[in-house]
Structure formats: structure tokens, C-alpha cells
Amino acid sequence: MSSDWRCDLHGAVLPLHVPPHATQETLDLVREASSVPLWAPWPLLPGWTVSGVGWVGDDRQGGRATVVACTGPAPLGGVADIVLVCEEPGIGLGARYAGLEGPDPGPALADALTTTAAQAKVTTNGQSTPLWLVRGADGRSAYVGEAEGLWLWAVLWPADAGYLFAEDVNLHDLREAAPGPLIFGVPSPYLNG
Question: Where are the domains of the chain?
């Protein structure tokens, strides 16, 4: 008898935990559960809110991936959503949101690395972190890179929301206290979908 979470397609997997609403209490819960960074834009972009948090893991291994969703004005008009994932290799959460096969960026990143320089850069804990645009599912932009030895994914809806990375985006690890108050908003439609 096994207590592992099972997927018919992938075998043993770790469960994804997404509280129904992002609040300070749910953020504190994810902080305590996680052993990997919980990246969020800081300061929040003008008009943006934190619209969800979550983690992948169980009681035995702890949080091995985190996700933060933010919602706000799109650079070309309308509303945009961004999902930031930090995960150990082999977890597959970022690839799932990007609409890629497999747990890691694999061939999608290999193609991007051989054909071009990084299309975006963010700052993580004071370090410049390059991100490469990978070909994901339609209707979204998906970027991936490495920060602190872990995968860092940024998946944005709609696809043209990727223009957010034309600006300097600083990411703060929310496992540490935020430098100011966070604004929580309506739950993201993308965390469970």
C-alpha cells in the first residue's frame, strides 16, 4: 500500500494546494510549507493585486514548488494575469501552466537557447535573471529561466501581456516579509485550470 498521490498518466506525483482566496493568512500558510522561494513582483506593478498563492508538496517532503498569481492592467489594454512558479526540477507545475508536455521545459528551452539570447530579464534577490520565451499553449506567453538553482517560470495571459517584461521587474521572495503591504484581489482563474 502506498500513500503517494497518483496520476494515471505520470505515476507518483506531489499534490498541488491552492487556497480558494489569497489572503495574508493563506500567504503565511504557503510561507511555512515552502522550502523554495515564493516569488512575487515587488513593488507590485501599478494597479496589480495578488490573486492567488499555492504550493506543491506533502507533509513528508514539504513545499517543493510555489506559485503566486497576480492580476492587473495589461500593457496593451484590458486585464492581464501572471503566474510565477518556482520549482525543483521534475515537478512540472510551470510546464503545466505553460501548456508544455513533460515536467521541465526540455526541448522548448533547448530550442530557445540555441536560437536567441534571453528575451526578458527580472531581478531576483538583487541578481539579474534571464528568462527565455518558450513555445507554450495558445493564448499565453511563457518564460522560463533559473534562479537559485531552481526553475523560475512566468506565464502570462493574454499572450501580449508578455510585454510587461519590457519594464524592469523585480521579484521578491515572499517567504521573507514583504517590504510593504500586499494588496489581495479576486482569485485568479488560472491556478486550478
Answer: 5-173
